[in-house]
Structures are given as C-alpha cells and as structure tokens.
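Structure (tokenized):
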C-alpha cells in the first residue's frame, strides 16, 4: 500500500460514492448540500466605531461559534449578549439544532456563556498552545 497527498478533486468521485450509503443509513438521506459550510461575520458598531465582532459557521445543522469579542472598554454593557443573541437567531433561521464553541476553561468567557444557557460538554486539557479549554454547547 502507498499513501500519497493528492488534490481533493482527485478523490471527489470516490468520496461521493462511499459517503452516499453511509449518509443514507445514518441520516436517512444523502444530500451533498447538507454538508456545505455557510460562514458568517457580525460587527457591532457604536457611533461608527467597531466595538465587537463574532465569527461563526453553520455546517450540517450545527452552528460553530469560533470567535466573539467585545472591545475591552465596552465590556459588561450587553454587547456580547446582543451579538450572541444574533448568532443564535441566524442559526435558528438556518435550521440549526445546536451551537457549539470553545473557550478558555474556568474563565470569565466561560461564565459569560454559562450565563446565556451554554453548558460545558468537555474540558480539553492542554489544548490550544497548551492552555486548558472547554467545549460548550447550547441546544436551540
């Protein structure tokens, strides 16, 4: 056997052929569009100043929040909560059943998300650059 790196196009037909029966047995259907990734970016402005941002994607009915931050001088004013509510609304509108995110373990950020109904799914020891993180989720 030989394993080599190839362009995705080279294996496209193989993947489609092999995933079709697997998806049909697990999900009851095969629709390649259900795996397409939708990417979103939100910006919060006040008097034309950018004071917060969120980046997330939707894939296979799952919202994945990858970044959300509020400018330091604007924290604890409800901006993060408002952005998170908008992320959740877009995910609901697009048919998501769940949102996930990763944040620093035992941090203000974790407590913020817990205050908005998110739960710790797993603690990821020595994860990003050796720092403990936690995987969190919320069902919509």
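Design, position by position:
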């Amino acid at each position: 056997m030989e394993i080599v790196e190839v362009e995705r196009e080279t294996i496209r037909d193989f993947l489609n052929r092999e995933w079709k029966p697997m998806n049909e047995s697990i999900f009851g259907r095969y629709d390649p569009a259900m795996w397409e990734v939708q990417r979103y970016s939100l910006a919060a402005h006040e008097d034309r100043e950018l004071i917060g941002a969120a980046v997330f994607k939707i894939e296979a009915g799952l919202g994945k929040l990858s970044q959300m931050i509020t400018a330091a001088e604007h924290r604890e004013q409800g901006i993060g909560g408002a952005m998170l509510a908008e992320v959740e609304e877009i995910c609901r509108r697009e048919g998501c059943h769940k949102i996930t995110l990763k944040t620093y373990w035992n941090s203000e950020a974790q407590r913020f998300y817990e205050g908005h109904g998110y739960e710790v799914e797993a603690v990821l020891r020595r994860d990003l650059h050796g720092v403990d993180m936690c995987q969190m989720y919320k069902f919509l």
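Reviewer-requested clarification: The CA atoms of residues 63 and 110 lie 18 Å apart. The first helix runs from residue 8 to 27.
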